Amino acid sequence: MRVYTIKDxxxxxxxxxSPNNQVALLIHGWSSSSYALSSLIPxxxxxxxxxxxxxxxxGESPPPKGRATIEGYADLLAELICEINSGPVVLVGHSMxxxxxxxxxxRHPMLVERMVLLCPTxxxxxxxxxxxxxxxxxxxxxxxxxxxxxxxxxxxxxNVTDHLMRPxxxxxxxxxxxxxxxxxxxxxxxxxxxxxxxxxxxxxRAGDLRGRLGAVEAPSLVLWGAEDNTVPLRDAGVVADEWPxxxxxxxxxxxxxxxxxxxxxxxxxxxxxxxxxxxTTHLDDVSEQDVTRVDQVAQFLAHSxxxxxxxLAQRTRLAAQCHVQTYAPHACIAQADTPGNQLYITQxxxxxxxxxxxxxxxxxxxxxxxxxLLSGQITGxxxxxxxxxxxxxxxxxxxxxxxxxxxRERLVALCEDDPALGNRLLWNMASALGLRxxxxxxxxxxxxxxxxxDDGVAV
Length: 459
Hints:
Elements: E1 2-6, E2 9-16, E3 23-27, H1 41-44, E4 49-54, H2 70-84, E5 89-94, H3 96-107, E6 112-118, H4 128-133, H5 135-141, H6 144-153, H7 158-169, H8 178-188, H9 194-206, E7 220-225, H10 234-242, E8 247-251, H11 258-261, H12 263-274, H13 291-301, H14 312-320, E9 323-327, E10 332-334, E11 342-354, E12 371-373, E13 378-379, H15 381-386, E14 393-407, H16 408-417, H17 419-458
Parallel strand pairs: 3-4, 3-5, 5-6, 6-7, 7-8
Antiparallel strand pairs: 1-2, 2-4, 9-14, 10-14, 11-12, 11-13, 11-14
């Protein structure tokens, strides 16, 4: 772990991922540590410089000198962002970390590009279960002698407290591993944190965000476990009413820890929202060195046949699956009567489509292309979709061509991993194909009319 000192406050930070990438700041919740979001780091670090903090008073970070508050944490992390990054960051917050993330986004909007919030504390009012069984212990921990008494007797009642806390934190059909469960419970019992836990418990109630969510500017994904008995699901109703632009998703078979309880579903939602590489296949071979290229291709796709109507995250995921190929002037790109398992997107230059001269049509001219595809246009989609063979030769134009290629297996993987993206991509391909066929039909009809007129004059 690396230690940053911000305003005389040491903050321990677990850093992973290329330091040259955009920063993703991971903020844990109450009675927790940076481990709370550790399950997301392997996914996020493939595109971001992940920095998972131990908030002051939690994990390895010493407690704050003053009283712990949500606003104080948010302002401190804003200072940390200014020190470690030159631009806006992505915030990933869990539970109380979600409330801190939202507060930071409201107080310092220029520092936040996007947010992913997992079971965020919105109203500050935890579940009835937590208020009845946990809050009395938390209040006692605030005072020195009482805190020491609680710490002394708790080891003798670990089975009892675990029995009480498990239904409050986890779903009945949770898939959390025993190792992760023990580590999370160990963080909740970490000694010397009683004062901070008590102050944060009251700080969450004082940090009620109801009535303020509409002012959040950053695009955000909000994930909630369907069986969350810590931060009640009723807070999701506040998100739905006051923050309609947020992407709210409810995850089945998950409680307060969806990142551990339903990792596949959680990862899929986050990957789609942030434009991360595919997670359901091993086709995503994009390395850290490719991030800049992927960003450039994603920007280009916004003005292409296939990128119509896609958001940046979707275009980024598509860009990560495309390969770049460059061809010299008039070079052969693909031959007729060969398997069509590649979609071609013209990025620079042009692509010429040449008819095939056959014995059945010896009169077909072969000296001129029948169509020219410019930047942003696609070809090869029909053979790619129906699994047939190509009906024409493809050649680079007189100035050469730089193409983006998407294979059939990567197209299938995109559709399986991200159905919304897959549906949009297929729709755009079909629309481009339909437009081209209508244009071809119009040209043929026009040519037939001209030919008919010429024949009439000749008579």
